[in-house]
Amino acid sequence: MKATIQTKTFSPKNGSGTREYHSFVRFPQAGVPFGEQMAAVVEAVSSLSGSSEIQFVRFFLSDAANQQAPLAEAVGGMSFPVSYVQQPPLDGTKIAAWVYAVDGGAGTMGLEWDAYMTSASEGSLAQMSDIFTDYGKALEDRGMTVADNCVRTWIFVHDVDVNYGGVVKGRRDYFNTIGLTPDTHFIASTGIEGRHAEPKRYVIMDAVSLPSVRSGQIQYLYALDHLSPTADYGVTFERGTAVHFEDRTHAYISGTASIDSKGEVLYPGDVRMQTQRMLENIDALLSETSAGLGDIVMAVVYLRDTADYLTVRSMIDEKCPGLNAEFVLAPVCRPAWLVEMECIAIV
Question: H-helix or E-strand containing 10?
């Protein structure tokens, strides 16, 4: 049985320039052994490199402790950055993948992806600090810095209800050392439940950086009539970041939930109303860079409770027809948030 591929393509209106592809690869049937699902998904991912150049792949797994090692062996010969995270697909299968690819290399965009950064230190605070320190050194070796060149991060936290506080402090302390404060800027990010194969690896991080940043190329998105600045409740990330290139704009929207302009959770216990407010917030962020929900090229929807999947899926299908999205089981950083969504839009 072959895997399915759902792709959203962006090409400038004049038809020239780099084409971008965001694809979700899935196995079409639950109840099939992991080895068979894995082989089909890996084969499909490999096929996407035939006519384009893969920049990054993330695999979503249902049981990293048993699945990550054979998967890493299966993709070991691939030359692009690969990320693995236990966030079970909510369609009941064991594995899915997000693939980002471009035609003819990165073209004038030049984005660089770093995947699967971890630390073996004790505790989530130390691990977050180690990861950012190591990432900063890696960027410096390539002539960049976290403050000037990092565009987006994804931070996956094992047992987020327990370990997220250490992640928040570790990131905030590191940002203070490099001059990132509420008076300067932070970095778009998702901080969400996600497990490594090793149970004591509490934190995993992926990131995107831009080597050469022109004046005015980076725009931070706030939507202050809908959402509060994150620093108001002690965390340090941007709601969204837009990167303006010569022929397009990328909008990287951080994990966004049902929150108001005071930083409070809206509609506790009501997943339908939370989903509606979440989409309103995302649309408000996108509007600051002349984009909308129809410009989203990829999205990941995170749910705390599998029982909410069909409800949320049907609402999103109705409000965002044809949305290129993966739905996974992953509690949000506040227990009262039942659903969260991140996305990338291109205009």
Answer: strand 4-10
Tens of pLDDT, residues 29-55: 999 999 999 999 999 999 998 768 999
One-character DSSP codes across 16-83: -S--EEEEEEE-S-TTS-HHHHHHHHHHHHHHTTSSSEEEEEEEEES-HHHHHHHHHHHTTT--S-EE
Nearest to 250 by CA among 145, 346, 322, 116: 346
Write the Ramachandran bin of 123: left for phi over 0, alpha for psi from -120 to 50, otherwise beta.
left
Beta pairing, strands 325-329 & 240-244: unpaired
Q: How far apart are CA 303 and CA 297, in angstroms?
A: 20
What value does the CA radius of gyration of the chain take, rounded to a whole number of Å? 19
The answer to whether the CB of 99 falls within 8 A of the CB of 25 is yes
Q: What gap in Å lies between CA 339 and CA 177, rounded to an integer?
A: 33
Mean pLDDT of 112-140: 97
Reading the block at residue 107, the tokens are 């073209």
